[in-house]
Write the structure tokens for this entry.
Amino acid sequence: MILGDVSACIFIDDQELPEYDVVVSSTPTENRITCWIASAEGKKFGVRTKFLAKQTSGFITTVLVDGVSCRSYVGSPGYVGTLNRTYLTNGCVRRDFVFSKLELTDDDSMLDDQTSSDIGQIVMEVAFGKYTMREQVVGSRNVIDRIIRVPEGKVHERSKKACSHRVTFGEEVPHHEPVGPFTVIRDNSPKTIFVFKYTRLDILQAMGVAPYTLIAAETETEAEDHDDEIGVVDGPNESSPSDDVKPLARIRELEMELQRLRAQVEDRKPVKLEHGGSRRKHAVMEVIDLTDD
């Protein structure tokens, strides 16, 4: 996605993910662009930010994954280039971003857990202002600072709808990343905010957000060509991608069935012959009334 002279994307294995249903909005305090992406369980990912033109002021970028704020990057005026953020760090250790399965619970004590409200979205913010030296603070790190603590527990099943994944963090790896000597004092210019909402691809397809792949479409067409009977399904459809999207998946099944029936009706319409008369592709039963008037 591109907003002004800044672009951002999510990448897996160095491949940028397709973006769906892009929406742009603006207020006096922020310019925001939002989209959907397809997450892949078990895959590490990163956030890539590109500054496409020289910046006229200093800037600070911050990545938030499921509401967890990562270490910011401070840039100077005139900067042009690319920034990748693939991990959470506290300056001593780092943990990679990983798409993982969302674990649910029916424990009602978890209903008020505010940490789950941001699950399902990755945010990249850019704020602008004066690029200046940071005030030096004398002190030392405590051993406890070397441990990264983030919420990674279960989530109440009613708190996240149509959400199947969350971001977890890989094993801790030693990583030395000291705090830089510069910071940015924000001015009154609006923030630039990129929001990537994520879930499984099949859920996005059932929601009508992402198109069906060519392979999936060919498989469905072949199944229709060899199926002359109307299937009636009672109860939940086990092949649906998720409990939250079963109604959407069922609607799509019915729409496809309706298209097939319409195609059959079209096949039965009379076809004009070159020498008059007509023929039909299928035999049609006629009922003759033999009763007297």
Summary: The chain is about 15% helix and 35% strand. Residues 246-267 form the longest helix (22 residues).
